[in-house]
Specification:
Helix content is 42%, strand content 16%. The chain is an alpha/beta fold and 242 residues long. The chain has one domain: Alanine racemase (TIM Barrel, Alpha-Beta Barrel), CATH 3.20.20.10. The two termini are 30 Å apart. The chain binds pyridoxal-5'-phosphate. InterPro entries: Ala_racemase_N, PLP-binding_barrel, PyrdxlP_homeostasis.
């Protein structure tokens, strides 16, 4: 094993232990939580090492980088998740490699993804509504970049559910740095769990709750996350912050 492979294996084992511990503490089954390794800024060779270590889900946040890596790893059986802010002019590329988009936050993006899936003639694309918890209490129509206000989730979810070629899978959020949940990941993910519960009442198949990163995966699992998105704890601190 190379040094890099050994380092990743060690870090991955530590993250697996943290997930195991969080599931036990929450009385949840380990099988209810899926680890997605966020590979942004790291090379395709790391993705290959991760696949060799049994990782099945990887995530990226920039189209150009993701498209190149997915092409370089096309021989691996991996699920690709897109988790970054998405411009409508990038969706034609994203639907070529992404299995799921976690960052659906506005009606215009729903329409663009639906059209791109039809044009590509691919299988349905899994979509999650990104919830901007820092905008809790904002008007439903006030959808902006980087997430919809919790009040806007039902409308956006309906748009996804009705859009040809798209499948509504659930919700995604990042613990906010601003607003009333800043520095309170437990409360933030608790609020997300409420949003997810309401969503399931209207759309029973939309069971995914994508929450929790390197710093707060325990709090997310405690609150019911089904998918944690972990980058630096597995691959190391990224040289540039993004
Ligand atoms: C980078 C990123 C992550 C992973 O963050 P870490 O702190 O490195 O674990 C998770 N989710 C999103 C949306 C990201 O952009």
């Amino acid at each position: 094993m190379t040094d890099r492979a050994g380092a990743i294996a060690e870090r991955l084992a530590r993250v697996e232990e943290r997930i195991d511990g969080a599931c036990s503490a929450a009385g949840r089954s380990r099988g209810d939580v899926t680890l997605i390794v966020v590979t942004k800024t790291y090379p395709a060779s790391d993705v290959r090492l991760l696949a060799g270590l049994g990782v099945r889900h990887v995530a990226e946040n920039r189209d150009q980088e993701a498209a190149d890596k997915a092409a370089a790893c096309a021989d691996l059986s991996l699920n690709w998740h897109f988790v970054g802010q998405l411009q409508t002019n990038k969706v034609r590329s994203v639907v070529r490699y992404a299995d799921r988009v976690h960052s659906v936050d506005r009606p215009k993006l729903v329409a663009a993804l639906s059209a791109a899936v039809a044009r590509e003639g691919r299988e349905p694309l899994g979509c999650l509504v990104q919830v901007a918890l820092e905008r809790d209490g904002a008007a439903a129509g006030a959808a902006g970049r980087g997430g919809a206000a919790p009040e806007g989730v039902p409308e956006l979810a309906r748009a996804i559910a009705e859009a040809p070629g798209l499948r509504l899978d659930g919700v995604m959020a990042v613990a906010p740095l601003a607003g009333k949940y800043a520095g309170r990941p437990r409360e933030a993910f608790g609020r997300l769990a409420d949003v997810a519960r309401s969503l399931r009442a209207a759309h029973p198949a939309a069971t995914m709750v994508s929450a929790g990163m390197s710093a707060d995966l325990e709090e997310a699992i405690e609150a019911g996350a089904t998918h944690v998105r972990v980058g630096s704890a597995v691959l190391g601190v990224r040289p540039d912050l993004r």
